Amino acid sequence: MAVAELVKSIAHTTDLRDTYVPGHRTCAGCGPALAYRLVAKAAGENTIFIGPTGCMYVANTSYACGPWAVPWTHAQITNGGAVASGIAEAFRMMIKKGKIQDKFPNVIVMAGDGGCSDIGLQAMSAMFYRGHKVLCVMYDNESYANTGIQVSPSTPYGATTMFTPAGPAIPEAKKHQMKDPMPIFLAGGHPYLKYGATASIGYPIDLMNKIRRGLAEDGPAFVHLHSPCPKGWSFPPERTIEIAKLAVETGMWNLYEVENGDWAHKKFSVMPKKLKPVDEYLQTQARFCHLQPEHVAKIQNFVNNRAKALGMEVPLPPAQ
Amino acid sequence: MPIKKKGTGLTAVADAWQLADIDVSASYPIRPYTAVMAELAKRIANGTMQCEMVHGEGEHAQFSIAHGASMAGARATTGSSGVGVTYAFETYSPIAGSRCPIQALVGDRTLDPPGDFGSEHTDCLTLRDNGWIFGWAQDAQESLDNSLMYFRIGEDPDIMLPQIVAMDGYFVTHIAQDYIMPDQDQVDKFLPKFNPKFRLDVKNPVIMGPQIEPEMGPPLEWDRHVVMTKVKEKIVEVTEEFGKVFGRKYAPFVEEYLTEDADMVFVLQGAHAVTCRSAIKYLREAGFKIGLCRLRWFRPFPDTALAQILTKFKVAGVIDTGTSYGAPCSGGVLSTEVKAAMSEVAGKPIIQSFTSGLGGETITHEEFFAMAEMMKQTLQAGKIIQGGTWVNFNDYHEGASQINAAKHEAAPSK
Ligand SMILES: Cc1ncc(C[n+]2csc(CCOP(=O)(O)OP(=O)(O)O)c2C)c(N)n1
Ligand code: SF4
């Protein structure tokens, strides 16, 4: 693995050129849009983005108006990993044959949680398995947002979405706990996938450096990027960053890296001194406002168990 | 020097892909097309070809990989058969809509059920409305030649459309035949390097496939339709030039056989033309004035050529080797299209629909004779006596005889 040139501070980032620029129609306070800007800034100009269908395609390119100063192409919601595989191998082969003089570009898929962990998982898994030099960023707004906020595998237990309203028969709204793509992809089943990380827009320097480490790999890399969505989660747009941080402080989101494919020795990049009760986080979003104490306890329980399973040595709030 | 070879339609297309110096090919196994990928893999392994073979996790991924490669500026191929063709369905319109001229080989296979390996054209015909250009080859030589012509037409800057080199499973994909592999110099003269005006290039950034204003969509869709009319002009031009460079002359759209004095013709596409021609020799001896019109293209559909040619005859029997359940006149897709193409044409023949060769059965001489007999009744009566007929089983086929007997018992009056 080549050594990534890391970003040291926010002040340092002002030297970097923005390639995700104005010209999009995302909601005010959109977490994924901010995520895009930081990823693009970290990646630099020798970059090609692939955007499977989702908010970051539709809201970014509506009415033929797009915000990129680097090449971008649409992919279907189902096939971002496959399209990126074709792009990466085409560059490799054309450069090898001397058909083009390009420097091999950063190939980045920006896929939503629906497009990456539900309908497009096969295309991502196969891309990792084959070992293409592609970075997959799963920006996670915890729903199928672009179709009007429906439940996805990332939607937390207890959240309301259009497909999981709360009602007397189902008082907790979403009944399933969420799917975690990190162990699916990184716990050893994809031998060429050496680098994976979780990141959050609440921690921009950490995020940008994880993108750079991923891009420095000779093969594929995966970054699971928590990106709060004011529209889907029902909170005021000015609270996006605060909520992103609160997710980490409560353990609703954990920040770690897996290097050299070593799942057992993951590195925590941000470790709160102790986790705050999840209720503090749930209170900030109307999608959780119907929850009863027993539901909140269930979430706390889940969060505590996940923290333990990941190996976080940190005091946990009581689950009852 | 061109080389005389013995091989199948699949090895012939592998030859074409080698000569075209493809950069990326995406594979997934399904019979019968699979052998072309096995052939490529061998050639890549032994260094005959420099091409990245990406093993897709399914056909949807295969076509997506080729799509990505094409957007990056590579010459890319893929292929499939039967349910593999339909599994990739989502990808066809985006590939054609982004004007990526990838080439796919479809070796036809019956859709499931019944899990039949035999050839039916239904798989390929299901994607006829997606903006790909395609037609059927009747043998290995034509497969190779079509592959080269399709690259040339599809990659033309005025066209930029994906292509399918379609061929009947087994009959063309697997029967070893003599063919000529052209010389590299000839191919280089005929087929320029793929050099798209736009590709994913950081020095010249473009946004591909954005969402657009609602009123921008229909003009783009209409443009995809209009370009098909340009394809027709290119076909004429390229087929002629192909003849000059390689010395093999093809009719651009419709190959005619013994039609000069004919009052009836079979209309079909693909490999069954070979048996049809030999059946016609016997029919001629028996006094039938019958010939054959073989379509070389299905998209764009050769309506102008057919309008000129078919008006020479009194009866045209269109043979579908595929199914379209509930289609007009109990025909298949081809017969429906031929009828539509001829609907406004003055002096058109009576067009009769047949379905035959299902499940990859050979359309036997007897079956062609039976169809000719029915067409003769039509000719004599001046109208169709028996509409949409499935001519599917020989009498020597025990199961078929039982089915026939049951049919007669159920409807004794017929
Ligand atoms: C095959 C297919 N099925 C369904 C859709 C409809 N669709 C469009 S955007 C979208 C939501 C995508 O959700 P996600 O990947 O989580 O991204 P987000 O919109 O949340 O950014 C869906 C389901 C589609 N475009 N294609
Ligand atoms: S719905 Fe959510 S993800 Fe989509 S644009 Fe709005 S804030 Fe961003």
Indicate the overall shape of chain B.
globular
Order of helices and strands of chain B: EHEHEHEHHEHEHEEHEHEEHEHEHEHEH
Question: CATH homologous superfamily of the largest domain in chain B?
Answer: Thiamin diphosphate (ThDP)-binding fold, Pyr/PP domains
CATH architecture of the largest domain in chain B: 3-Layer(aba) Sandwich
Major sheet: arrangement of strands of chain B? 3-2-4-5-7-6
Please state the CA-atom Rg of chain A, rounded to the nearest Å.
19 Å
For CATH, the homologous superfamily of chain A is named as: Thiamin diphosphate (ThDP)-binding fold, Pyr/PP domains
CATH-defined fold name of the largest domain in chain B: Rossmann fold
Strand content of chain A: 5-15%
CATH topology of chain A: Rossmann fold
Low-confidence stretches of chain A: none
- Residue ranges of chain B: pLDDT <50 for 5 or more in a row? none
Largest sheet of chain A: 8 strands, mixed
Q: Largest interface here, residues on each chain?
A: A-B, 50 and 46 residues
What structural category arises from helix and sheet content of chain A? alpha/beta
How much is the average pLDDT of chain A?
97
> What is the CATH domain class of chain A?
Alpha Beta
Short key terms for the protein model shown above:
heterodimer, A: 320 residues, alpha/beta, Rossmann fold, 12 helices, 35% helix, globular, B: 414 residues, six-stranded mixed beta sheet, binds thiamine diphosphate, THDP-binding (chain A), OxalOxred_beta (chain A)
What would you say this structure looks like, in words?
- The complex is a heterodimer of chains A (320) and B (414).
- By secondary structure, chain A is α/β, with parallel strands linked by helices.
- Chain A has one domain (10-310): Rossmann fold (3-Layer(aba) Sandwich).
- In chain A, 35% of the residues lie in helices and 13% in strands.
- Chain A has helices at 10-13, 31-43, 55-61, 80-96, 113-117, 121-130, 181-186, 204-216, 230-233, 240-250, 278-282, 293-310, and strands at 47-52, 72-75, 106-112, 135-140, 195-200, 221-226, 255-258, 267-270.
- An eight-stranded mixed beta sheet of chain A has the order 2-1-3-4-6-5-7-8, with helices on both faces.
- In chain A, helix 3 links the parallel strand 1 (47-52) and strand 2.
- In chain A, 54% of the residues are buried.
- Chain B contains 14 helices and 15 strands.
- Chain B has helices at 9-19, 35-45, 59-71, 82-87, 89-97, 122-125, 140-154, 184-190, 217-246, 272-285, 303-310, 333-342, 365-381, 398-410; strands at residues 3-7, 24-27, 52-55, 76-80, 103-107, 133-137, 163-167, 177-181, 207-208, 254-257, 264-268, 290-295, 315-320, 350-356, 389-391.
- Chain B has a six-stranded parallel beta sheet with strand order 3-2-4-5-7-6, sandwiched between helices. A six-stranded mixed beta sheet of chain B has the order 10-12-11-13-14-15, with helices on both faces. In chain B, strands 1-8 form a two-stranded antiparallel ribbon.
- In chain B, helix 3 (59-71) runs parallel beside helix 5 (89-97) and helix 10 packs across helix 13.
- The mean pLDDT of chain B is 94.
- Classes of the chains: A alpha/beta (320), B alpha/beta (414).
- Chains A and B meet through strand 1, helix 3, strand 2, helix 4 and helix 6 of A and strand 3, helix 3, helix 5 and strand 9 of B.
- Strand 2 of chain A pairs parallel with strand 9 of chain B, so a sheet runs across the interface.
- The site of thiamine diphosphate has 18 residues of chain A, from helix 3 and helix 5.
- Iron/sulfur cluster binds at residues 26-27, 30, 32-33, 55, 59, 141, 145, 229-232 of chain A.
